[in-house]
User: What shape does this take?
Amino acid sequence: MKVAVFSTKNYDRRFLEEANQRYRHQLAFFDSRLTAETTPLAQGAGAVCAFVNDQLDRPVLEELVRGGTRLIALRSAGFNHVDLRAATELHLRVARVPAYSPAAVAEHTVALILSLNRKVFRAYNRVRDGNFSLEGLLGFDIEGKTVGVVGTGKIGATFARIMLGFNCRVIAYDPFPSRDYEKMGLKYVPLATLLSESDIISLHCPLTPETHHLINDSSLRRVKRGVMLINTGRGALIDTRAVVKALKSGTIGHLGLDVYEEEEELFFRDLSGQVIQDDTFARLQTFPNVVMTGHQAFFTREALTKIAETTLGNITAFETGKGTFHEVPQEVPA
Ligand code: NAD
Assistant: This one.
């Protein structure tokens, strides 16, 4: 099948081409993000392969359908950026990669926690500069602390298991609690309890209208003073302006982010020679107790192999009706 692959980086091309030796689709790679302006590049492609910051709103989907596209094959687990109602109405099928490597994201979450707590990023620079002072590098024992996991799906549960290995008390909130995870040692609590009892809060729920700005002025009033907040889920789970205020007042003691509300205009490219126009993002960079990475939690060899394999497998399953098609649930039009 002819596939227009958007937001392609060298690594995407490498892993997709390798997997495609078995699938033999016709892949056309485009560096550009999918937007209203770049939609014509997909003309004649039966499938469009998209990533997390591609624009998949109604006007773009309508244009794609006019150009002959019948399938959106997401290279991601999250699908919050797709207008599913429009896709359903346009008879456009949408597939995703439901679980490529929960460990990749869970382990990156732990990397953020440990870097923030023991200030590895500051120590690295100091030691390179011949400064061996320990002032300002004081951390705390993770062992024995209470870790709050919001969303115990594949990633949240993997993260919880790691933190239980640190001998933490792990509490969780999920509208669909799992008895198996309770047996593993975590305890489900209401969200308000999680907020007020956790020393570390980590977000692993999907971005939906219900979870949009889950962390906001009002929820931050409930947290322990000095809490560590980690978000490797989606940027808009957090109201960034509220979080900046909470950092200034000391309500939040540490912040680790792999995702950012307005990341579309920033992440996945080299802007090192340019002036960043986003003042909220720039303000976040000024705090000594904030570590940000540019949506890299998924970025392991194992994850990229699985993403390429599942994405091309989805396209083949759509085309032939054979094999597993990981379809995003369709939305029934109102
Ligand atoms: P999943 O579908 O396995 O789990 C999501 C869990 O969240 C489910 O258990 C669900 O019941 C729960 N949930 C739903 N609504 C909730 C709410 N209001 N409050 C609390 N929990 C709620 O998904 P997953 O594979 O574990 O991925 C979780 C999220 O991580 C994805 O939606 C995606 O946004 C993000 N993600 C980020 C990266 C990255 O590189 N940073 C990579 C992959 C996924």
